[in-house]
Amino acid sequence: ELGGEELRIATMSAMGENNQVRTATRGEGLVKPRKPKTNLRRREETRPRGEEPNLLLEPSKAGHAGNREKLMITSGGGGGNGGGGKLLGKSEGDDFVPPPRHPEWVTSGHLVRRFMVDGGEGKNLEEAQGAARSGEPIVLAGSGIAKRELSRRWTFDYLMCSAGAPPGLEVLCSMDGKNRFTSVERENNAYGSYYFVREPEAIALDDQTSLADFVECARGWRGKHVCATAVVMQRKGEAQARGGDDEDGGARVLTEAELAEIRARLVDPAVLPAPAPGLGATLARDLANLLAWDRLASFLKSQSLGSVGSVRLRLGTTNGLHPLRYDLSDRIVVQVRGRSRYLVVGPEFALRGLYPYPTHHPYDRYSMVDLEQDEAEIEEHWPLFRQNARGREVVLREGECLFLPRYQFAQRQDLDPETVSLEMEVAKGMRTRHENAVPLQVSRLLER
Q1: What does the CA dihedral 202, 205, 206, 212 come to, rounded to 10 degrees?
Q2: Over 80: is that where the pLDDT of 59 sits?
Q3: Contacts of 194 (CB under 8 A, 6+ apart)
């Protein structure tokens, strides 16, 4: 046995040129000293001498007085963290703004077009409608679809007291500290199935039955992170559209009159969805009075779209990530409170670099590409993405609306401690699908 001082001397004498240590107590093993950990969230910006920083104009944090704006400076680089980020200025309440959780080269500075439509009138609105008709995702700013009172009122505290018991409440928990949420299609994740996922990236907390439970977890937990989704509105007659029930509880055949009424509800954008069963009366009144449904219907009509089928309430916290995923319906996202960064990639890259999961996989409609990996990992595992795929990004602010045509891949990153949005699923009406989405749709049909 070596004494403490003898062990130290023996260890020091065994150090080699590579700063490796041959241990005196555990055989011939080599131990490499650990590299010091760097805090990626607050590391100092490094860039080649003479290179100008990339300045992004970010809006002031939600809920703060005034209309101050903050400059966010980000370093370039291809890492999944998108480079470091820090705020310039010392205005009251400034907090760290999470840098993009995707490589800078995915967008190369290209942004989703934002149209200031000034209450739903004027030349800008016509341009926005034309861009949307061509299959382009757009942001409507100043549309008045979401009234300012909605953003002021819908805090987490208000929602947990007013929401009641909305159906389909799902609280996801990121257990590994990554603050990353991937929803599992439970019907595809049967035990023993070919694509069975034993340990999902995020688990559903089935015992969380109210928004109060979610808010308590979101504010109290430190090593784990949560997000929540709940259905707050549904199109009238959804039960009949699914086939209906007879008096004995069995399925029945719908009459021609009932089918005609359902078709009319699907095609007419002026038909409003109804509050979901169990939704609190206060929240139901807010949805009816603080959303300009006439302006929304006017936009949907300009796109030959049908009525709103469902409205989902989505709640998140700072730096929560919802990876690239596409939907089978056109969507309108209304940012109620806080800000969210969206990365949007077109369906033309689906089979040329986005590597979508098979339709029978529990992660159906998600992309396999992990944008938080470094460039070398992406190049190795998903080479077509590095070669072909490019997207656009936008920071969605309070009161703005993001139109996402079906089959568009979108990744959402919440930027504020209380992030609230409404996601509306819209019937296709008389609108035809864009040609860029045809290969992805055909591939789904072939897999089925």
Answers
A1: -140
A2: no
A3: 360
Name beta bridge partners: 59: 69
Residue 143's SS3 state is coil
| Bridge pairing between strands 69-74 and 54-59 | antiparallel
Residue pointed to by tokens 């490094």: 46
3 state SS of 32: coil
| pLDDT range class, residue 238, cuts 50, 70, 90 | low
Q: Above 50 in pLDDT, residue 300? A: yes
**End-to-end CA, the chain:** 68
Non-local (6+) Cβ contacts of 76 within 8 A are 47, 51, 54, 83, 104
What count of Cα atoms within 13 Å lies in the side-chain half-sphere of residue 341?
24
Q: Around Cβ 447, how many Cβ atoms within 10 Å?
A: 11
Model-wide pTM > 0.85 = no
Hey, is 317 helix, strand or coil? coil
β-pairing, 54-59 vs 330-337, is unpaired
Q: Is 228 helix (H, G, I), strand (E, B) or coil?
A: strand
- For the chain, give the percent of residues with pLDDT over 90: 59
